[in-house]
Design goal:
mainly alpha, 14 helices, about 300 residues, about 80% helix, cell membrane, Na+/H+ antiporter like fold
């Protein structure tokens, strides 16, 4: 029974990523730049809006998951700075990959397949905080200066504002808007996995030793940050399982995109992303098993979700 459950969760992730990888290795190439722009500018804000408004999440639940995401990133930042300082690695190059997990491309499909509708709700509430931080703090680290105006150009920022207004003031959303955003958001998960596979086919590993060190650090730091957040926020049940899975995802591909844009060790960052992703794929059965085990406990936050849906 457990083996079947794990197959049902991991099978689609591996299959769609493999399809993207084969496209990346074949003469029929997916245009990754167009695909990534479509995901960031259209699919992601649509998914955030449709999921958080159609499932009637409360601001309290939204705040708890956002707080868990922020706490995981804060703990990761502290541990990452310590690891990089002790190992003599470049903080500017490797701090973002250690802080920001791939909670979109890999994390969201996993929590949706593992925990269903509740996983989608909690996962999106966690993911939007990571995405906002990636496109503001992460971007600024690689740029070498604070670039908060970049955040103001992100549609997902305004999607979040719209969600807060709808939830906070109980504004009814027209069905045509819900249907449109649901259709647009529905393409995000498969598009992200295809992009992940295609990107892995084109990225090369430079300097395997530092890439392996940082990739291992990302996984271990993710586990520690998840445990700290779950304990401090007293999360149990499905919310705890969602936080654990999303916090332990590999280094996000967007880190390589920013490193390439500002020409700050892009080859080494690419190697880190590849090795981190492969390492996480190897560990996925264990990570998913742990998340499912964690989710079986009684969850005070689950009571909040039940009340918000009634």
């Amino acid at each position: 029974m457990l083996l079947l459950q794990m197959t049902n969760i991991l099978g689609p992730i591996i299959a769609i990523t493999a399809i993207g990888y084969m496209f990346g290795r074949s003469s029929i190439r997916l245009h990754t730049e167009t695909l990534s722009v479509l995901i960031v500018l259209v699919a992601t804000p649509a998914l955030i809006f449709s999921t958080l408004t159609s499932l009637e999440v409360s601001l309290e639940v939204l705040g708890i998951m956002a707080g868990a995401a922020a706490l995981c990133m804060a703990v990761s930042a502290g541990l990452a700075a310590l690891v990089l300082t002790c190992t003599g690695r470049s903080i500017r190059s490797f701090l973002p990959p250690l802080i920001f997990p791939n909670s979109g491309n890999m994390g969201l499909p996993l929590v949706i397949l593992a925990f269903g509708e509740q996983g989608a709700l909690l996962g999106v509430a966690y993911f939007f905080v990571v995405a906002l931080a990636q496109h503001s703090i992460g971007f600024s680290i690689y740029a070498g200066s604070v670039r908060l105006r970049v955040l103001l150009r992100q549609p997902l920022f305004y999607a979040l504002i719209a969600v807060l207004l709808v939830i906070g003031f109980s504004i009814p959303v027209p069905q045509v808007v819900l249907t449109t955003t649901q259709m647009l958001g529905g393409m995000m998960i498969p598009a992200m996995l295809l992009l992940l596979g295609t990107s892995l086919a084109s990225l090369k590993v430079a300097d395997l030793a530092p890439a392996l060190i940082v990739a291992t650090g990302r996984l271990l730091i993710g586990v520690v940050s998840a445990v700290v957040a779950i304990m401090l926020l007293d999360l149990r049940g499905v919310p705890a399982g969602v936080v654990f899975l999303l916090a332990t995802m590999p280094a996000a591909i967007v880190n390589y995109i920013f490193a390439e844009r500002f020409q700050f060790n892009p080859e080494q960052v690419a190697g880190t992303v590849v090795v981190s992703t492969v390492l996480t794929f190897v560990c996925l059965p264990t990570l998913v098993w742990a998340a499912l085990a964690i989710s079986k406990s009684e969850a005070p936050l689950s009571a909040l979700l039940t009340r918000s849906g009634t």
